[in-house]
Specification:
Radius of gyration of chain B: 13 Å
Helix content of chain A: under 10%
Structural class of chain A: mainly beta
Oligomer: heterodimer
Order of helices and strands of chain B: EEEEEEEEEEE
Strand content of chain B: over 45%
Number of helices of chain A: 0
Number of strands of chain B: 11
Shape of chain A: globular
Order of helices and strands of chain A: EEEEEEEEEEE
Largest sheet of chain A: 7 strands, mixed
Helix content of chain B: under 10%
Chain lengths: 112, 112
């Protein structure tokens, strides 16, 4: 069973479109995260949710909006996609805040 | 924000050689984590370190939490082709720190 799963694996879309990436964890964790990995492989935290509440919201454009319908899911919706949004987006989860994080397989987003 | 300096940036080694990489910080960290990322996959946790001076092994991998709490190293013994990938150090700094800071990664290439 996959612990942290993301869909889709690949997403190719035009500039200006709106898209969503879904994440689910079956580890029973309370905390979930979204990271962005750029072309230089640098991993940068975007959002952190603990018990469905937003904890960390780094300087991310408000075109990005996370939604946590329950503790096992954290989805990422992106409005008005721009070329610079092209990256790999990773979901992660941990038992609680400050605990070891486990990552999903990533979603490679390409904006044309 | 916190920064982790990871070195080397990349390494080319012969199969069978030992490898060493490290991370340093100007501030104290209270948890160090080492991840490996294979191409097209998410980071996978290799070793977690929670106490200064702690030395932990996972098969051919050994990692240590520096006694100053400002550094950590990862050693891989007798490298094999499947060790290829990007290795990331990461850490939580200070009590109550919920944000995981990542190093920029060490790209390892193993020549058969």
């Amino acid at each position: 069973d996959t612990a942290v799963s993301q869909t889709p694996k690949y997403l190719v879309t035009q500039m200006g479109n709106d898209k969503s990436i879904k994440c689910e964890q079956n580890l029973g964790h309370d905390t979930m995260y979204w990271y962005k990995q750029d072309s230089k492989k640098f991993l940068k935290i975007m959002f952190s949710y603990n018990n469905k509440e937003l904890i960390i919201n780094e300087t991310v454009p408000n075109r990005f909006s996370p939604k946590s319908p329950d503790k096992a899911h954290l989805n990422l919706h992106i409005n008005s996609l721009e070329l610079g949004d092209s990256a790999v987006y990773f979901c992660a989860s941990s038992r609680g805040l400050g605990d070891t994080q486990y990552f999903g397989p990533g979603t490679r987003l390409t904006v044309l | 924000g916190q920064q982790l300096n990871q070195s080397p940036q990349s390494m080319f080694i012969q199969e069978g050689e030992d490898v060493s990489m490290n991370c340093t910080s100007s501030s104290i960290f209270n948890t160090w984590l080492w991840y490996k990322q294979d191409p097209g996959e998410g980071p996978v946790l290799l070793i977690a370190l929670y106490k200064a001076g702690e030395l932990t092994s996972n098969g051919r991998l050994t990692a240590q939490f520096g006694i100053t709490r400002k550094d950590s190293f990862l050693n891989i013994s007798a490298s094999i082709p499947s060790d290829v990938g990007i290795y990331f150090c990461a850490g939580f700094s200070g009590a109550g720190s919920y944000q995981l800071t990542f190093g920029k990664g060490t790209k390892l290439s193993v020549i058969p």
